[in-house]
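Per your request, structure below.
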């Protein structure tokens, strides 16, 4: 789409764009970034091919968000939902933060949003800690658990500050008291009970926020995800969403909207077991998955994930403060980033968005004017070298050696059937003629308690030693280089030069199945030094081919007028 062939109406005036950057093509649609001759207007637009017209445009002038006067989206014009907006715990951590989120949501009157919320602040951690302390503190002492006091103080002060009735959450606080007493009486905290316990965070945050929106004169309706069709497996603490969820969600939310339009405020992170009918959780960060599932179920125009950082970054800013925002990602890149440790997204959250071909925009609720990161099906990778560097700490590496592998078949199947029998997933794998090297993540796969993790590791080694010699290496880290693996030789040449200069030995390398990821295994105590050095080499040094993170010099096609 040439800029010279386009005219756009902006607040009643017509402009011809100066530059058009086409970031993603899908059938007859093109998502573009437009800049205008006066230099103070840019726009993100979804446009049809010539002659059909614009579907929706949001423009930014002088860093203040305004809505285009061209047309509202077709869905909004018909009164249907247009976008799902998910806000994490830090975004709704206090009464002030909830006010800002409400302003942000209500600042787009032409949108018909659905809202997904996490628990307030650190509430999920406090609930888990309170449950563990209740196991051994005795029934009479549960009211003295410090984390319970923190939870009550936060939610009661928020309700008071926002000027909404205490009755909004009083029954949940009473029920939480009784649950902790029950845990203390039984002296155990099962995975099923743990999911029930942590659900109080989302159930209370959504009720508070919905009541606050209603107090402002906006129609809002609170929903518990487990009551509106989020059907999951019965894998407590890490359940998977089942296909039956999508039609159930669509019917319930649309029927309610048609009967009485109101902004849905949905609990993130939660579901209902298909057999047990008990509350389940989707794993840490599961509210992202809630949002993308709703997006696919309703066929929305866009999924927005609002965090406390300016989108997806080139590395963890707590490791290296010069991390830069990544403007564009593919679904594959985002999935690899999430799985290998990036905290911005849930590892499974990209699947529904990819299946529904719905763009995901990651934004900063503390800095809403920042452009954030747009995650889409495909982009021009021809000049992208590296997109981001991700660090996954405290993994366990296993070297499995057996001459039975040499020229034989079935040995790999035997090894992986052992992991299947033990219910353990593998992160990274590399093989040679007589050995297999692989990594495991104890913090995600096994018990929360370190002592129990050690016992389960011993069991893994014991089973594998029946068929091979096993060497267990703990305190390792995976450094994942996410980018264009077509340039793997250039990426590895630069990476190994950096690591050699810093006297770091790579103990394992994995590349192949993924087209966007090369993983290196190093010692934990060298990992942060490696990330800093690699980031400087790939993103800060002047001799790096891609000067803009995740974009490169031309990864998004620039069409000059």
């Amino acid at each position: 789409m040439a800029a010279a062939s386009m005219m756009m109406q902006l607040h009643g005036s017509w402009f011809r764009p100066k530059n058009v950057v086409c970031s993603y093509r899908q059938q007859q649609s093109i998502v573009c970034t437009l800049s205008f001759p006066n230099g103070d207007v840019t726009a993100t637009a979804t446009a049809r091919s010539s002659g059909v017209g614009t579907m929706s445009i949001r423009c930014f002038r002088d860093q203040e968000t305004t809505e285009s006067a061209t047309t509202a989206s077709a869905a909004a014009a018909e009164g249907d939902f247009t976008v799902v907006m998910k806000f994490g715990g830090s975004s709704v951590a206090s009464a002030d933060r909830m006010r800002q989120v409400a302003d942000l949501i209500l600042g787009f009157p032409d949108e018909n949003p659905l809202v997904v919320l996490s628990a307030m602040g650190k509430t999920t951690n406090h609930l888990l800690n309170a449950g563990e302390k209740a196991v051994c503190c005795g029934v009479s002492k549960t009211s003295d658990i410090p984390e319970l006091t923190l939870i009550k103080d936060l939610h009661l002060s928020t309700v008071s500050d926002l000027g909404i009735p205490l009755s909004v959450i009083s029954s949940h606080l009473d029920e939480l008291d009784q649950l902790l007493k029950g845990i203390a009486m039984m002296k155990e905290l099962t995975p099923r009970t743990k999911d029930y316990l942590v659900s109080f965070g989302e159930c209370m945050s959504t009720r508070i926020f919905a009541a606050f929106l209603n107090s402002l004169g906006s129609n809002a309706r609170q929903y518990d995800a487990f009551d509106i069709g989020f059907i999951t497996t019965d894998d407590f603490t890490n359940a998977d969403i089942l296909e039956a969820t999508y039609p159930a969600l669509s019917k319930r939310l649309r029927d309610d909207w048609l009967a009485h339009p109101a902004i849905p405020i949905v609990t993130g992170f939660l579901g209902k077991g298909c057999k047990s009918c008990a509350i389940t959780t989707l794993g840490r960060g599961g509210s992202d998955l809630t949002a993308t599932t709703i997006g696919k179920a309703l066929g929305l125009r866009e999924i927005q994930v609002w965090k406390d950082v300016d989108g997806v970054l080139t590395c963890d800013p707590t490791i290296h403060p010069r991390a830069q925002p990544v403007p564009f990602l593919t679904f594959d890149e985002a999935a690899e980033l999430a799985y290998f440790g990036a905290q911005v997204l849930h590892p499974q959250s990209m699947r529904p968005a990819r299946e529904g071909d719905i763009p995901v925009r990651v934004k900063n609720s503390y800095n809403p004017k920042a452009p954030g990161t747009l995650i889409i099906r495909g982009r021009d990778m021809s000049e992208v070298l590296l997109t981001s560097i991700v660090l996954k700490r405290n993994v366990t590496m296993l070297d499995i050696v057996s001459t039975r592998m040499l020229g034989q078949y079935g040995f790999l199947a035997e090894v992986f059937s052992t992991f299947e029998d033990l219910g353990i997933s593998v992160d990274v794998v590399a093989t040679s003629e007589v050995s297999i090297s692989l990594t495991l993540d104890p913090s995600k796969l096994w018990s929360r308690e370190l002592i129990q993790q050690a016992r389960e590791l011993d069991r893994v080694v014991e089973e594998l030693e029946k068929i091979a010699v096993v060497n267990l290496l703990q305190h390792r880290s995976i450094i994942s280089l996410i980018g264009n693996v077509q340039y793997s030789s250039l990426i590895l040449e630069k990476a190994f030069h950096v690591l050699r200069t810093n006297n770091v030995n790579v103990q394992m390398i994995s590349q192949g199945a993924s087209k966007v990821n090369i993983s290196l295994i190093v010692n934990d105590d060298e990992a942060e030094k490696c990330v800093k050095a690699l980031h400087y080499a790939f993103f800060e040094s002047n001799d790096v081919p891609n000067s803009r993170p995740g974009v490169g010099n031309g990864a998004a096609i620039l069409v000059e007028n």
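The first strand starts at residue 8 and ends at 10.

Regards,
D.
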